[in-house]
Write a structure and sequence with these properties.
With about 210 residues, the protein is mainly β. The chain folds into two domains: about 15-115, Immunoglobulin-like (Sandwich), CATH 2.60.40; about 120-200, Immunoglobulin-like (Sandwich). About 5% of the residues lie in helices and about 45% in strands. It contains one helix and 16 strands. It has one helix at about 15-25; strands spanning about 5, 40-45, 50, 55-60, 70, 75-80, 85-90, 100-105, 110-115, 120-130, 135-140, 150, 155-160, 165-170, 180-185, 195-200. It has a four-stranded antiparallel beta sheet, with no helix packed on it. The chain has a four-stranded antiparallel beta sheet with strand order 2-4-7-6, with no helix packed on it. A hairpin with a 5-residue loop joins strand 13 (about 155-160) and strand 14. The longest helix has 10 residues, at about 15-25. The protein is elongated.
Length: about 210
């Protein structure tokens, strides 16, 4: 049977009580430093690609308030922080690239998350229906090269890199008779990742 494709803080050490009060009053801005990762605290969303967004809501799940936080780069800042809560807003200020947000809770535990201030997507450039297998060219749109491509079910299909790593050739594996869902994923140099879902099915009545 022939396969067919159905085209997805750091902790700032306080020297005196006044320094502590000034830091808490300043909110969540500043550069991060060294701190240990927490096994019970996670920032959501993780590795968020903002695209055209300029503001997103974030939270430190599992954190014990009050919390404090910092950003690594001036391309973005944190606002709307209630130190007795675990939520805050991230604002994209300027430029494109990635930022690292680090949160520290009252127990001294810390955790970080990346925010990507640009868009990344996978686009279907072309589709060719061949005799033995179907071939689809996929291309990364946005993001920063070099790119790394992967496929979740290599038994159903495979990827073949082309000279420009912004795109790959996706093709169903011929003569296997396999069918099912899979994801093709692309990751850029900064770690931004996006996937596209595809489904391989058998065409009834075709050899």
């Amino acid at each position: 049977m022939k396969n067919k494709i159905i085209a997805i803080f750091s902790v700032m050490a306080a020297v005196c009580v006044i320094s502590v009060l000034m830091f808490l009053g300043a909110g969540c801005e500043g550069s991060g430093g060294d701190s240990s990762d927490s096994g019970y605290m996670t920032i959501y969303p993780q590795n968020h690609i903002m695209g055209d967004e300029t503001k997103i809501m974030m939270s430190a799940k599992g954190a014990v308030p009050p919390i404090s936080c910092s950003v690594e780069s001036s391309i973005g800042r944190v606002e709307d922080l209630d130190v007795n809560d675990i939520s805050f807003s991230y604002i994209a200020v300027k430029g494109s690239g990635y930022n690292v947000i680090t949160v520290v809770d009252s127990q001294g535990a810390s955790t970080s998350a990346k925010i990507f201030q640009y868009d990344l997507d996978i686009e279907i450039v072309s589709y060719v229906d061949l005799t033995e297998k179907d071939v689809m060219r996929l291309q990364a749109v946005g993001g920063f090269p070099p790119f790394t491509w992967s496929i979740s079910e290599p038994s159903l299909a495979y990827l073949s890199a082309v000279p420009n790593d912004t795109s790959v050739i996706y093709a169903t594996t011929s003569s296997t008779g396999g069918e099912g869902a899979l994801d093709v994923t692309v990751t850029d140099v900064y770690g931004a990742t996006v996937s596209i879902p595809l489904v391989v099915t058998q065409a009834d009545g075709e050899e």
